[in-house]
Amino acid sequence: MAGTVAVIHIGQLVTLAGPQRPRVGTELRELNVIEDATLLVKGGRVAAVGRDAELRTRIPKQATVVDAEGRCVTPGFVDAHTHLVFAGNRAAEFEQRIAGATYQQIAAAGGGILRTVALTRAASEDQLLAMARRHRDWMLRGGTTTIEAKSGYGLDDATELRMLRVQARLNNEGPARIVSTLLAAHTVPPEFTNRRDEYIRWMVEALIPEVAATGLAEYCDAFCDDHAFTVNETRVVLTAARAHGLGLRLHAEQFRPGTGAALAAELGAATADHLETVTEETLGLLRAANVQPVLLPGSVFALGRTNYPPARKMVEAGLAIVLATDFNPGSSPVASMPFMLSLACLEMGLSPAEALTASTLNAAWSLGLGDTIGSLEIGKQADFLLHEFTDYREIAYFVAAPARPRVFVAGKEVTQ
Amino acid sequence: MAGTVAVIHIGQLVTLAGPQRPRVGTELRELNVIEDATLLVKGGRVAAVGRDAELRTRIPKQATVVDAEGRCVTPGFVDAHTHLVFAGNRAAEFEQRIAGATYQQIAAAGGGILRTVALTRAASEDQLLAMARRHRDWMLRGGTTTIEAKSGYGLDDATELRMLRVQARLNNEGPARIVSTLLAAHTVPPEFTNRRDEYIRWMVEALIPEVAATGLAEYCDAFCDDHAFTVNETRVVLTAARAHGLGLRLHAEQFRPGTGAALAAELGAATADHLETVTEETLGLLRAANVQPVLLPGSVFALGRTNYPPARKMVEAGLAIVLATDFNPGSSPVASMPFMLSLACLEMGLSPAEALTASTLNAAWSLGLGDTIGSLEIGKQADFLLHEFTDYREIAYFVAAPARPRVFVAGKEVTQ
After folding, report:
1. Does residue B123 share a domain with residue B22?
2. pLDDT > 70 fraction of chain A, expressed in percent and rounded
3. What are residue B294's DSSP bridge partners?
4. Does B15 score more than 60 pLDDT?
5. For testing the chain B interface, which of A351, A393, A394, A416 should be mutated: the one with the most B CBs within 10 Å?
6. The CATH number of the domain where A355 resides is what?
7. A320 and A398 belong to one structural domain
8. How far apart are CA A361 and CA A384, in angstroms?
9. Closest CA to B183 of B222, B141, B138
10. Which domain, by its residues, includes A8?
11. pTM for this entry
């Protein structure tokens, strides 16, 4: 938290002020931009936004004044789907895939998720924390101030809890806010290969109650896929999680329709994530149940694929879309939210404004934080970015730019 | 230039040592990596490379010691095709294109190259320098230490020379080396629309001799395309440039085969750039004439297209491929060489090693600098990067990572 901070001479102050709910349809483009603006922060919260001329007399003498010199200010990015904590990396597999190896061949050679599981199990809590901190710092440099982070490279009691504790420690040390999700249902661990029912029973009867009791996770997620868990298995896991008070998120329909999106609607999940293969019919189910789709173009790009999720159809269907990185060592070693905006525009046909709303305010709502962060409105936590750019569209336009936003969390500059 | 610098404890020192010529075929993968290495720099040049244990006794007491802590060192990137100097940006057109506007519609509405020409003509030399410096700084942050930069947004005597002077000033102020190319044959300026022959005659009889006499450009380039200059027109321009001692580069076959690659071979150009539509037959001509293809995947990506140039076929044809950004405000607002490596691997099937050679040593050769920069061999200028990564493959793998290499030019740290 900071004292009083006044950011003046903002060329474009993108407030995203508006209705207190996720934005849909044309609302996604309504950024509520104030030009020649001042942003006033008191006690870590937005105290006022308005034209420089209007607010000039309201800036206290003792305020810290930041001169934006005509540049653009937006809310900090909220990355609502990441696998932040893991050991090692899979650059060797990246090279193998480019040379033509299939995901199946890599997995058969000991690669894939299970390689990361083995490395993560072998790492101490402090080692995992140091590695996660590096990734968190990358995200902060790109302007991400809130990060959803999933377990799921442990798949046993000790390591799943270790990952969640690392996430809690990262959240406590700040400055980025970490929202924790239990993803023990990421894949079946090797020791349960021929006993998948036992693994599911263990999650339902032991792990989920334990995690819920510790308060180490707010959400439970599952990977519903032919290579992970069936719809029925996923239903069992997530129903138990819901009964223990956890919110629900769901890896759904990444590789084949019918793998989880309808279940997300049935269970009232907060989000259905991926959805590369979702059908239009299913989009209606998500809309009716107020499930937010989380679009993860980084994993499409980094897998060298082109089947981006049908974002425009989702917007037309009235869905409150969210844009996230899916940062992970396998399918999406991509930590940058600005690059997600570029992919959203270039590959999914979203406008820069739609992409920005999806990656800030709508993402905040998907984490139950829509009344706290995601827009720059009076009373909200002052998480914001002072960009190198004068126009918010440049965030997507200058693809992969080594630009450096100045990053503020609760009004305090935390630029790395 | 610096005194003696010793970079010790390098986990992977990627030297690219080898034959003193552009690399082709399997040579592209021969990075000559030394593990647990030391790099010794004296007077701005590489004085020694070897194992830590071997070089320990050769580090002078007064040397500046940099501990790489196991991380990776590579040569600095050489970006052999950029349009670094321009005024304004085209983020509005980016938005229009996403919304479905065609390049032709945008041009008809006053957009496209001619919009940048109008803004650039209206900008003073100091204004252009300030804007170019910003882009140069982005490139430096991404690890680019040498930048080829083209004029071509002036298209009149005063502005073309102003752009070239800005490039010369940037080169003089350092730390990045700027290699200048005259690109007055970028498009026909509006005042010559119905007198294209006169524009060509002016280039040949006035501008090229003037520029050659000033020494403000080392190369001459032309955009051979249905919307720019025909093969015959391009031949006239480049033949004149060659007669005045300028090296030749050529925008060729971006949108249609038969637009310039054969001409590049005929004229003995240093490079043929773009080549998205080049045929296999033409690759043989380039090989026979030792023309280096410059691959520009950023412009394919940022135009939302998928017709990446046939890099693997070029490697098989024995061509000494080069990888560059094509940084420009229209088709490739992409300043990051690491992102080019990601595109090269994911979209063009190059291995991380091939992509690295193409973006350092081979790029240096394409600029006539292969004996000076591009590899870390004794006697060469010590332009190098100390990455955040331990493995060079991570440069391409961690797509668009907000990572920050420490950047050294002539042995001196210039990290931004």
Report:
1. no
2. 100
3. B273, B322
4. yes
5. A393
6. 3.20.20.140
7. no
8. 12
9. B222
10. 4-75+374-413
11. 0.97
